[in-house]
Amino acid sequence: MKHRLLCAALALISPMTAMGADVTAPRLNGAVTLDGRLEEPMWRTAARLPHTAFVRWVADTYVKDPTVFHLRFFHDGRTLYVALVSYDGYVEADADPDNSDGLYSLSLATRAGKLKHYRLRWSENPPLAGGEMLDSAEWGAHLRGPFEEPARPGGGYVFEFAIKLSAIGWKPGDTIPLNIIVNDHDGKPKAAYQTPGAEFARFAWGSFDNGNRAAYRTLKLAP
Predict the structure, then answer these.
(1) Residue 8 pLDDT > 50
(2) Most CB within 10 Å of its CB: which of 47, 182, 192, 213?
(3) E strands present in the chain
C-alpha cells in the first residue's frame, strides 16, 4: 500500500509525457563476463537509452541532480543483456529501496502477461540485487567511486546483467513491454528521499508506477 501511494503521488507531481521512439536491441554475438566493466565489443554497438529520455521527479528545491547516466541493450538470441552506466559523483547507500542509489527497477511483462521487476541498488557496498534479479538473472557491478566518501577520486558505477529470454517467454523479433526507474540520492546519507534538504531524484522511462503496465514503453529484440 505504501509503495502504491508513493507511486501515485509521484505520477501526480510529474506526469509522464511522450518521450520519443522505442528502443531496438541489436542481435550481437560474443562471450560476456558480467563484471560491470563493459569491455566486450558488443557493448560498444549496443543500443543506448540516455537519461534525457527519462522523466525526472525531484524531492524538493534543494536537488542539484548532476548525475548523467544511460542504459545499453543487446541480445544474442538466447539472452538479453542490459547495462546501467551512471556517472554519479557520490554513490549513497540505504537499506530502503525507495532511498538507495541505483536501478530501482527494470520491469517487463512476460509473454504470459506476468510483470517481473529486476532490481540492483547500492543498499550497501557491494550492491544488492532484488526482485527477479535474485532468481532468474545474472549480474555484476563495478564502482568507480566515491561510495559515501567524497575524498575518493572518480565517480559513478556500472550495473551489468543478463536475462534469459526463456525466463520471460520472448524471442528475437518480439517486442517487450518495458519500464525503467533509476534513483539518485546525493545528500543527507541515510535520510529518507522526502527529507527537506535531501538531494534526491528519481527517473522513469515509462512510468513512476512500475505496476501500471498501460504506461510501459517497448524494447524490440532484433531478429
Answers:
(1) no
(2) 182
(3) 23-25, 47-50, 55-58, 69-75, 79-86, 102-109, 115-121, 128-131, 137-143, 157-164, 175-185, 200-205, 217-221
Tally the C-alpha atoms within 13 A of residue 80's C-alpha that lie toward its C-beta. Answer: 32
Q: Please tell me the chain's helix, strand, coil percentages from 3-state DSSP, rounded to the nearest 5.
A: 15, 40, 50
Question: Which has the closest alpha carbon to 36: 105, 127, 166?
Answer: 127
Q: Which residue has the cell 505496476?
A: 211
pLDDT tens across 67-85, in order?
899 999 999 999 999 999 9
Global pTM reads: 0.88
**Spatial distance between the Cα atoms of 213 and 223, rounded to a whole number of angstroms:** 24
Residue 205 has phi, psi (to 5 degrees) of -110, 95
Cell numbers 528475437: residue? 172
